[in-house]
Structures are given as structure tokens and as C-alpha cells.
Amino acid sequence: MTDVLRRGRASLAFSFFAQGVAFALLVTRIPAIQDRYGVSDALLPVFLAAVPILAGAGSVSTEQLVKRIPPSRVLRWSQPVVLLALLGVGAGESLVVLGVSLAAFGLAVGALDASMNMLGVSLQRSYGRSIMLSFHAVYSLGGILGASLAWVGAHWHLALWVSYLPVVIVLLPAALVGSRWYVDGEAGAGAAGAAGAAGAAAGEAATGEAAGIVFKLLLPLCLVMSFAYIGDSTVSNWSAKYLQDVLGSSEQLATVPYNVYMVTTLLGRAIGDFGVRRFGAVVVVRGGAVVAALGFAVVASAPGPWVGMLGFTLLGLGLCVLVPQTFAAAGRLFPGASDAAVARLNVFNYVGFLIGSPLVGALGDAWTYRGAMLVPMVLVLVTLVYARSFDTQPDRYGGGHERPHTADVGRGSNGL
């Protein structure tokens, strides 16, 4: 069984890595995509907003799918769709092809993100210790590689399909081969017909009062997820503009903050599981929220670009722990319905992404961009209020002695 878990962990880590590469290749080449298809500035936000909206729909659909089939099967087929859709974006000639490719990418990404984190939560339970941050660290590594490949493509003025095709040729067969070793945990409601039927029956038996308790338990994690992605989208969408327009950096230097942010995210996640094992998830989440808030404060008050760079470095170290620990906390809170919890929680990933960039842009135009940076700072600090939702005691990752009220809710409701 140990070898099975190890292979399952390695294959799932590769899926996180491949997704990081694919997503970075898409978002970092948006100007080139706009030029290729002649998308106007007015129409571009529509295309960009459609991806997270459809991803949210894909995540909700995955909640229903895993009642009938294992999450591993959803992941096995959604990852190739993401990669092929990326290639479609790069190789298309018309706006119709772009729209269809982005729609497929969005729906598949929602299913992919949800199923990957479902498998990660169940693997962590089987391991009996924190490993969730390691998966997201590999995602960050993939993002760094994808952004680097995008830079190469832009530097050498390569056509989009020329940049994307080698990546798809390498990652697609590797992902399909690796999918043979995915491990569905006990939370995979579709892993066996009897388990799925029992979960459905439990969901039908849940009362309105129990559903209300479930919502109250999940809501803090949903808010933390949204706040984390508002912070993340602020960095990804506004760091370059902020450094150049507000702090007076050169155009070349303005490209550095996001790369620094990704590197520090990788480092923070690489060591984060050790922190959770040593100090507990509550301490790690509180520390991450404080460091991220400090990062936004430094960015907002920076007198020049190098101090601003320090702020973005702190943001990477602080925000990186919040999302993986939010998924892990959902799995602990609902041991009998963790797949449904992860799928619904994943929707708030896209909610935060949709809100973050327009929020900062609107506040920056109406007020100042320095002042706009204080809003995600305050939202991240709100995480401190909900930190107890990340408590791993008294059950340290699935030891079989869940807190009575959460265990009862998990057994009493299949859907959240």
C-alpha cells in the first residue's frame, strides 16, 4: 500500500505541475493572443471573464460527476482537454475558434482543479500527515516554467502554436501515462457503486437544519479562499503596472515582481508542510495572513521600486499557504463528504479571481493605486478571524477521532 500511495502522490504531483505550466502559458501570452485574433480592448475582458466563470461551472459539475465516477477518472480526461484547448487557442484563426477553445479550457480547468484537490485531500488523509502544500508547490514550479517558456516565445517572436505545441506533445502523453497511478481515497464517492449509493442516500436524508450547519462550517473557508485569490490576482494583474506607473521603475524591472512572487510562493509551499506538522495549520495560516498583509502594506507605502519588490516578495511567502490549507481544512471538516466540499470551495477560487483585478483597477482609478493595495490587505487580515476553522485537533489528519459535530455533519450530508 505504501508503494501505491507513493506512486499516487508522484502522479498527482505531475498533474499539478502540468496544470501550472498550461495556465501560465495562457495567462502570460494574453497580449499575443489579443494580437493574433484582433480582439479589441473592449471585448478582451469578456473573453477573460468567461474562463473563470466557466471554470466555476466545471467545478460545480464535478461535484455531481464524482457521485457516479471516481475523481481520478475526471482528472484523467480533463487534463488532456486543458492541454488540447491551450493548443487550440494558439493554433486558431478566428474568434469562434478562440471562444470555443477558451470555453473548453475554462470548463476543463474547473473539473481539473476540483478533482486534483479532491485526490490531494484524500491522499493526505491516507498519509496521515500534511502533504497538501507540496502539491501546490509543484504547481508553482510549473507556473515558473510556463512563464519562462512564454518569455522565450515572446523574446524570439514565435507563433503561439509553435510555443504551445512542444509543451502539449511532452505533457499530454506523460499525463495520460501517469494517470494510471492515481489513487482514489475513501472520499471518492464514485469509486464504488455501493459507496456512491450510500452517499446519495445520506444526502437525501439530511435535514434543512443540518444543511444550515454545513453552510456555516464551510462559509469561513469560502471567504478565506476568495480573499486569498483576490490577493493573488492583484499581484498577477497589477504588479507590473504598479511598479512602473506608481513606483517609477523601468519597463524591464516591472516584469520582475511576478516572477519573484512565484519563486517565493514555491519556496513557501515547499517548506509549508513541515510548518503545519510542527506548529499546526492554525499557526501557519495566521502567520501567512500576517505576512501577506505586511507585504501589501509595504507595497502601498513603498518609496521606490526596490522596496515595492520586497513587498511582493512578502506577499508570495504569505499568500502561498492559504489556498492549500483551505482545501485541506475542508477535507477535515467533512470527512464523509470531502469531494463535495472541495468542489464547492473551489468555486470561490474563481470568485476571488473575478473580483480581485476589477476591484483594484476601479479603486485605483477612483482613488489611488496605493490606496487600492490596502483593500486586499484588509481582506487578508480577515482570515485571522476564521483561523480556527483550520484546526487539526484533536484528529491529526485522519486518525479516526473527528470532532463530534463535524463528523456528524460529514456523515449526515453528501452534498454541502
UniProtKB/TrEMBL annotation:
Signal peptide from the UniProt entry: none
InterPro entries to which the protein is assigned, alphabetical: MFS, MFS_dom, MFS_trans_sf, MFS_Transporter
Location of the protein in the cell: Cell membrane
Domain Major facilitator superfamily (MFS) profile: 218-416
Bias (Basic and acidic residues): 398-408
Coiled coil: none
Predominant subcellular localization, coarse grouping: membrane
Keywords: Membrane, Transmembrane, Transmembrane helix
Name assigned to this protein: MFS transporter
Organism: Streptomyces cellulosae
